[in-house]
């Protein structure tokens, strides 16, 4: 980045990775330096040059020093000192407000799951007798912080794995802490030592690919789904209905709430079809409402098993809960012996089984039936990119079947 003004240079501030303005020669402010609240990145060049032009004018026409000219141009004369005095709690509140009103506009529940729980531990560490002194130290401490079960019951108080020992949680925790610290430094709420060097961040985070997060997930085979639902139906026919909806249509748990998001409609071909009105926030946009398409299961005999109970949606047995969502479904499943057995079996394989597995199983079946990714993504309510990177689409068996079919052996 070069300055357009003689005797003025623009360099990278080593400690903060921000843009530093320096006056090397001329008739005003020689030897003075000032840091701009912009990181040293190509995307900030245009904005930096606009600011520098106005600062240059203020220095030469209004008798400012370099720093007072910068503060006058940026409107920081009354707020700069106040920002430096803000507590970590206040910084967290500022970023939370940014996330929920300006950036992704996430819901309270999403914030608590993806940010709040990590920040809670972070704030506790920062209040300790020996708090972390840099961003890298802070992230490392949060990842390795001891955890215990806080849910009422027999397991209350028992040790849990640290977030650093869990692939998905480690990735989520790293993003939550890094994004907060980047925001804090960029807004001048904290000095540059709180930025995490990229090399250290990569070491703490591990692989950042969506495939790495998917790698530890497990879906369910058709037989496992059929047998699980059959067993649960004998005790809880209402929840069996929810599971059938999730598995047959690849629904998110919250989408299976018939009173809020599901409706029987007639499509453009004059056919009866389920429609889902749920729209998930994806950045600044919402995913579109969509038509749902059922997929069959393959039983022990290799025959297709269709579930047509959805045609009588409003007459299906239903669970006695205020609303159906991921929390309610997860709470129910964790009490079922068949589910516990499946979780234990998958754990032996190094896999995690979660209620979202019914949705992953649907995307996997789409691939097995040869449905194009674009069509499967549309039916699932997400982008093709998300479909390919964040969901289970294949397995060794699926791969072998595909090659045998290509070779004419199947």
Features:
410 residues; hpI Integrase, Chain A; mainly alpha; 3 domains; 17 helices
Task: Give an overview in words.
- With 410 residues, the protein is mainly alpha-helical.
- The chain folds into 3 domains: 8-77, no CATH class; 84-208; 222-406, hpI Integrase, Chain A (Orthogonal Bundle).
- Helix content is 47%, strand content 10%.
- The protein has helices at 45-61, 66-74, 80-84, 88-101, 108-126, 135-144, 167-186, 198-205, 210-215, 222-235, 237-249, 326-333, 337-348, 357-368, 373-380, 384-390, 396-406; strands at residues 8-12, 18-23, 33-39, 147-148, 159-160, 262-266, 272-276, 281-282, 285-286, 290-291, 297-298, 304-305.
- A 3-stranded antiparallel β-sheet has the order 1-2-3.
- Strand 8 (281-282) and strand 9 form a beta hairpin.
- The chain is elongated and about 90 Å long.
From the alpha carbons, calculate the radius of gyration and give it in angstroms: 27 Å
Contiguous low-pLDDT stretches (5 residues minimum) are 77-84, 208-214
Summarize model confidence as the mean pLDDT. 85
Distance between the termini: 61 Å
Q: What's the CATH first level of the largest domain? A: Mainly Alpha
Question: What is the fold named in CATH at topology level of the largest domain?
Answer: hpI Integrase, Chain A
Largest sheet: 3 strands, antiparallel
**CATH architecture term of the largest domain:** Orthogonal Bundle
Shape: elongated
Percent strand: 5-15%
- Strand ordering within the main sheet: 1-2-3
Count of DSSP E strands? 12
What is the element string, with H for helices and E for strands? EEEHHHHHHEEHHHHHEEEEEEEHHHHHH
Helix fraction?
40-55%
């Amino acid at each position: 980045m070069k300055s357009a003004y003689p005797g003025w240079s623009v360099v990278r501030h080593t400690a903060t990775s921000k843009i530093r303005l320096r006056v090397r020669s001329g008739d005003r402010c020689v030897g003075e330096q000032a840091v701009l609240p912009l990181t040293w990145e190509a995307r900030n060049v245009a904005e930096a040059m606009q600011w520098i032009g106005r600062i240059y004018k203020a220095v030469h026409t209004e008798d400012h020093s370099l720093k007072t000219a910068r503060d006058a141009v940026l409107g920081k004369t009354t707020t700069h000192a106040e920002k430096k005095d803000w507590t970590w709690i206040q910084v967290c509140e500022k970023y939370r407000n940014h996330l929920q009103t300006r950036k992704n506009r996430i819901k309270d529940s999403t914030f608590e799951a993806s940010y709040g729980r990590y920040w809670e531990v972070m704030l506790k560490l920062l209040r300790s007798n020996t708090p972390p002194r840099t961003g890298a130290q802070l992230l490392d401490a949060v990842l390795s912080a001891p955890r215990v079960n806080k849910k009422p019951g027999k397991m209350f108080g028992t040790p849990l794995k640290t977030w650093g020992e869990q692939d998905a949680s480690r990735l989520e925790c790293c993003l939550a802490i890094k994004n907060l610290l980047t925001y804090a430094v960029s807004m001048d709420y904290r000095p540059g030592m709180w930025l995490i060097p990229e090399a250290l961040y990569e070491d703490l985070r591990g692989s950042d690919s969506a495939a790495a997060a998917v790698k530890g997930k497990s879906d369910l085979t058709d037989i496992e789904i059929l047998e699980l639902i059959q067993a649960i139906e004998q005790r809880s026919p209402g929840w069996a209905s929810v599971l059938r909806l999730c598995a047959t249509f690849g629904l998110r748990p919250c989408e299976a709430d018939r009173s809020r998001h599901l409706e029987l409609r007639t499509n453009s071909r004059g056919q009866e079809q389920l429609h889902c009105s749920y729209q998930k926030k994806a950045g600044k946009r919402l995913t579109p409402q969509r038509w749902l398409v059922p997929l069959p299961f393959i039983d022990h005999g290799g025959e297709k098993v269709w579930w047509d109970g959805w045609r009588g949606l409003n007459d299906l047995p239903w669970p006695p809960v205020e609303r159906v969502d991921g929390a309610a479904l997860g709470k129910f499943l964790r009490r079922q012996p068949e589910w516990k057995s499946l979780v234990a079996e998958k754990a032996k394989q190094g896999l995690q089984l979660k209620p979202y597995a019914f949705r992953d199983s649907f995307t996997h079946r789409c691939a097995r039936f040869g449905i194009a990714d674009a069509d499967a993504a549309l039916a699932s309510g997400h982008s093709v990119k998300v479909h390919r990177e964040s969901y289970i689409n294949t397995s060794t068996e699926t791969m072998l079947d595909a090659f045998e079919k290509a070779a004419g052996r199947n």
